[in-house]
Design goal:
heterodimer, A: 281 residues, Rossmann fold, 5-stranded parallel β-sheet, 12 helices, 10% strand, B: alpha+beta, 8-stranded mixed β-sheet, 4-stranded antiparallel β-sheet, 16 strands, globular
Chain lengths: 281, 430
């Protein structure tokens, strides 16, 4: 995908928004020092958050923010895919369904009744789902919000015609490279770092608090038993070692990336555990 | 400090260990101090015997060492309390040290407690060993710049700096000796490591209090510093016994013109070291290593530990000897410049096991087995010494409290039974 660095040959970039808070799009704008260089390296042709000039596709790179929560969006993401050579999801919503995926374990109809005076105007799907459940995704940038440096790196790699490499290792490596004191071992905080993928620069533990998994589960090329992330071990330790009750363990895993496979399965295991506790008492 | 190796002669005879050294060792297995490195071997606890060479300083006069080091241009680094543990930081005064604090360590747990005493070195250690001083978590290696007909490179060797570290423990010194062997010995010396290492002046502290997680006695690395230090201190009530382990250390010691420690005080210091060793509740039985661990390759215990291990890599990050690293390229958007840098890596990451289209260690079991087998067995084949110094950090800083000594003991126990039962079948072929 390498093209010339300047002039007519610049890659065409588009940024699309689905169900989201816009924070990841803002991360692009927060690339203050690099923004001009980015605008020179790429032709930003579609970015409604920034410019009302919305050029039609096809696009070389499409950044997709937000999850799919309406019928209309489910169709729109198909059209985005058709127009994009490389589709990159940005953030927890587009990559794993986001915090709004909590609705997947609840009754959306009842929410509508409680929140809106005229609920019949709301057209919404029962679920919030990641982009990858609808179309093929080339690269996934995790985070709530994404790490702007990581986004810049992926774009730099694509410009250079190099396959971007995204970390799959745990947050703990970044934390230890910063020479932080482990908040789990020294403070007894229920930190998700050991099962969460690196990329954020271990922001939360660097500030003395526990990681809440906004970069999603660590994962390699393969998934399955015996492979990371070992959420079962961490969850058991939260319960047995740090004395979290089952519903607290459940909530640790059912957060911003609660609908990401590994976290979803773990929270559902503790849903059962919670029911068992209820049954006993 | 290193680099004077040619003129150095080993002083085997007058090494008087505070432990009966070597009794845990299998034949042909050397302790980490016996490794031939380009760092001079220095006289250690043996000096305890030589009354007169050990100076004594009262606690209230300890600041004199700080002042002396500062006047020689050293940046002084010592343990300070931060975020619920002790970490290395630049300090200026004795008062910056964690006076009165004690650390309590167990599997997966670290807590500090203020005892209210005037003890300066009551905390044994924090998550960092001496590793980050010379083998830094991130080391920029080369700056690359695109030029008209290719590219130019510029090495980013760190500036040399004189750093005096106060409070290194025997296990830390043993770890550093192994790192020296890896980065400085042989055909290829690492100039980045060497530059940082050269500026270090190490003031060790002999341990008089063992943690629940300590097992240096069984690894023959502690609790008393044997060599690899410039000065070694032993805190006995309100007195500090000081011995020199290098020429630079001797110079500093004579500049202080201390009164010699009495024989009684020296004996007391040695006795506290022995008591510290005896109070260690964990141990690692090395008598049948490395072979027994190689034979335990298919042991069911690996599955058992893999169910608990998260492959998060904390054990390898805090290990004083783990030296795995990766090299990363960081280009800028204009693609005119790039930084080539070295980062701490771990055999627990998926990337680490990836070789030409295939991951050779996909499962957590593969990775944990790789780490333990290398650390305790193939390290001996590779470097002639164990890769473990018995500091216990991997036990404390494992978020789910996996205990290396417990795993090894389980791995060796039934493998013995199995190897005896399988021997008759194996014998004819060999």
């Amino acid at each position: 995908m390498e093209r010339g660095n300047t002039g007519k040959e610049r890659l065409r970039l588009a940024v699309f928004k689905f169900a989201s808070c816009d924070g990841c799009q803002l991360s692009i704008l927060n690339l203050e020092d690099e923004l001009l260089a980015l605008g020179q390296a790429l032709d930003i042709v579609y970015f409604p958050e920034v410019s009302s000039k919305m050029n039609p596709g096809p696009y070389d790179i499409a950044l997709v923010e937000g999850s799919i929560t309406t019928e209309e969006d489910a169709h729109r993401i198909q059209s985005v895919r058709e127009q994009a050579k490389v589709l990159i999801t940005i953030g927890a919503c587009a990559t794993a369904g986001g915090i709004q995926a909590l609705r997947n374990w609840a009754d959306v109809e009842s929410f509508k009744q409680v929140v809106y005076p005229s609920p019949h105007y709301i057209q919404s799907l029962k679920t919030s789902t990641p982009t990858s459940e609808h179309v093929h995704v080339d690269f996934e940038l995790w985070g709530c919000p994404i790490d702007k440096g990581q986004l810049l790196r992926v774009i730099t790699d694509l410009l250079a015609g190099v396959h971007p490499r995204l970390p799959a290792e745990s947050v703990c490596l970044e934390c230890k490279r910063h020479e932080n004191v482990c908040v789990m071992v020294a403070k007894g905080l229920a930190c998700l770092g050991p099962v969460t993928r690196a990329g954020c620069g271990a922001i939360c533990p660097s500030m003395g608090r526990d990681c809440y998994g906004c970069f999603g589960p660590t994962e390699g090329a393969r998934k399955g038993p015996g492979l990371p992330p070992n959420t079962a071990s961490l969850a058991s330790y939260f319960h047995d070692g740090l004395h979290l009750i089952p519903v607290e363990v459940l909530r640790r895993f059912r957060g911003i990336n609660g609908y990401a496979d590994a976290f979803k399965q773990e929270s559902e295991r503790w849903e059962l555990e919670k029911e068992n506790v209820k049954g006993e008492t | 400090m290193y680099g004077q190796s040619q003129s150095y002669e080993r002083i085997g005879g007058d090494l008087v260990l505070c432990l009966s050294g070597g009794f845990h060792l299998a034949p042909n297995v050397r302790g980490p101090y016996d490794v031939e490195t380009s760092v001079p071997k220095m006289r250690g606890i043996g000096a305890m015997e030589v009354v007169g060479e050990i100076g004594v300083l009262s606690r209230s006069d300890f600041q004199r060492i700080f002042d002396n080091l500062s006047s020689k241009g050293y940046r002084i680094v010592g343990p300070i309390v931060r975020d619920g543990a002790v970490v290395w930081d630049t300090i200026r005064r004795v008062a910056d040290l964690p006076i009165g604090w004690h650390d309590h360590q167990e599997a997966g747990r670290y807590r500090l407690e203020q005892t209210g005493s005037k003890e300066i070195f009551g905390v044994v250690h924090g998550p960092q060993s001496l590793k980050p001083f010379a083998f830094t978590p991130r080391e920029p290696l080369v700056q690359i710049e695109r030029s008209k007909d290719g590219f130019t490179t510029r090495s980013t060797l760190p500036p040399s700096e004189k750093v005096a570290i106060i409070g290194a423990r025997a296990c830390d010194l043993a770890g550093l000796a192994i790192q020296d062997q890896i980065f400085l010995q042989g055909e290829y010396q690492d100039p980045y490591y060497a530059t940082r290492r050269e500026g270090l002046f190490i003031i060790a502290v002999n341990c008089t209090r063992a943690l629940q997680t300590c097992f240096c006695a069984s690894m023959d690395t502690g609790p008393c510093a044997k060599n690899g230090f410039d000065l070694a201190l032993t805190e006995v009530d309100d007195q500090l016994l000081i011995e020199a382990g290098s020429e630079a250390g001797s110079d500093l010691l004579s500049a202080l013109s201390l009164s010699p420690a009495s024989q009684g005080l020296t004996r007391e210091a040695a006795a506290r070291g022995v008591a510290c060793a005896q109070s260690q509740v964990r141990r690692l039985d090395r008598t049948r290593l490395p072979q027994a661990l190689h034979e335990a390759h298919e042991h069911p215990r690996w599955d058992n530990v893999a169910a608990r291990c998260m492959a998060c890599a904390n054990c390898t990050m805090v290990c004083p000897t783990c030296f795995c690293h990766k090299v990363e390229e960081t280009p800028d958007l204009t693609r005119q410049n790039s930084e080539h840098s070295r980062l701490w890596d771990s055999c627990f990451t998926q990337e680490h096991g990836y070789i030409h289209g295939k991951n050779i260690r996909p499962t957590i079991k593969d990775r944990y087995r790789m780490w333990v087998t290398h650390k305790l067995a193939s390290w001996i084949d590779q470097f002639g010494t164990s890769g473990c110094v018995g500091c216990g950090r991997c036990i404390t800083w494992c978020p789910v409290g996996i205990d290396l000594t417990e795993e090894v003991s389980a791995l060796l126990k039934s493998s013995e039974q199995r190897s005896t039962s399988s021997r008759p079948q194996e014998a004819p072929g060999r």
